[in-house]
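Key idea: predict the complex, not the pieces.
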Amino acid sequence: MEFSTCAVWRPLIALLLSFPLPAVAAPPNIVLIYVDDLGYGDLGCTGATAVATPHIDRIAEEGCRFTDGHSAAATCTPSRYSLLTGEYAWRRKGTGIAPGDAAAIISPDRVTLATILQRAGYRSAVVGKWHLGLGSGELDWNRPITRGPLDLGFDESFIIPATGDRVPCVYVEGRQVVGLDPQDPIQVSFSGPVDDEPTGQSNPELLKLKWDHGHNATIVNGISRIGFMSGGQRARWVDEDMADVLTARAQKFIEQHVSSHHQQPFFLFFSTHDVHVPRVPHPRFAGRTSLGARGDVIAQLDWCVGQLLATLEQHRLTRNTLVILTSDNGPVLNDGYQDEAAERNGEHRPAGRYRGGKYSSFEAGTRVPLLARWPARIPARTTSDALFCQIDFLATFAALTGESIPEGCGPDSRNLLPALLGEDRNGREHLVQQAGALSIRKGRWKLIEAARGPAVNRQVNIETGNLGEVQLYDLTADPGETRNLAATEPTQVAELQQLLDQLRNGSDNDR
Ligand code: NG6
Ligand code: CA
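Result:
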């Protein structure tokens, strides 16, 4: 009986299988690889030759490379704030580079990019650098941490609280410092020493990596940091292992997801410490490139990306996973440690053909690598000149998952799904860029507002873009921003200034 039923159905099943499958309808998994301080020109696929990045280049090769992709700001905290909230950070006080003991900058009642994906049925995790504050002030690191990623739409978190160069040098998993020992409580201060532990200033002979500017307080793992900490000896990270630790934790999230939550899609925000200072590669990457530590940690980063791609592949997740790789701000060579990044840079152009770098109002401040691979929907081997900002991920991912954006949420975020999928070549109509001054981009034009302050940040040796008067550049004719046309193009100046003023006074609400 059983056999004959099967025999009847078999031809019908074969017939059904012979029809092409409908386009993939399941929402994709999303892996957002958020690199720290990676410049536009730091990758093989954007012109670098002194360091090989085959795994990252593969994302571009199998997907789309955006040539006009931006972080919202030229430093980390405001970029991350904008990425998660879809709101320009300059609209809010307290969103500048956060100290290591900052309270949570995004209040828990806000709907973030991660909340939207959670509502769309995703399981979400952040692994890596956070730098958006924790707790509600006067944080006691020895107790459960209220207010953090778990309150902002993440189901799991394993983070570096602030930056690699700021105390406390510990990982936080969920609401707890990893490896916390009640017998050796952690104390943190940014105003003065908390005990008589040696510092970079008092005991330079103890350092394996010397500081250059700032970074002369508590020594952890032979490297002095910004800020003072005591205790938590067992919990302190080892910089050389950090890339491995974070990558393994990200892989664990994917693997556990596959085994326990496979009916849901996932969102992984993999926020690397590399290539920020202190640049301390694992010994297997040390000396890999001619560029010194900075090149070596780019090679290390590439390896980490390769590991994640391999994990996706191993679980047959490649086809319906959207992998995005981008950076929180432009590049810097000497950012406070004597790691020879500047001395050994040679002909390498971290910012590609763009002017400035991290902290700068010139293009290299925010124009960063932006690569997107989603084999099911994004055509391979494509490039796009669409103007794209990370602030747009919120509305774009909402559109992608069919989730609505609550009133007042993500006021500056635009749905750029058509641009992401290669169906629209233009992207945003305009973009405000944040550094020392605000700039506005529209069409071929860029206006940088008048700003006080030095033209060159001597500590990091980067042109700030600050000038006492307004600047105007034609980025099509002059991508390197060498000819200020403000005096000869007064109509353009007036139009852009008016648009910037309008945006400043309201939100970018015509999405
Ligand atoms: C600066 C630090 C710099 C880096 C930066 C934050 C000094 C002198 N400089 O204040 O080293 O940590 O903050 O970088 O302390 S970011 O990528 O997280 O924005
Ligand atoms: Ca950064």
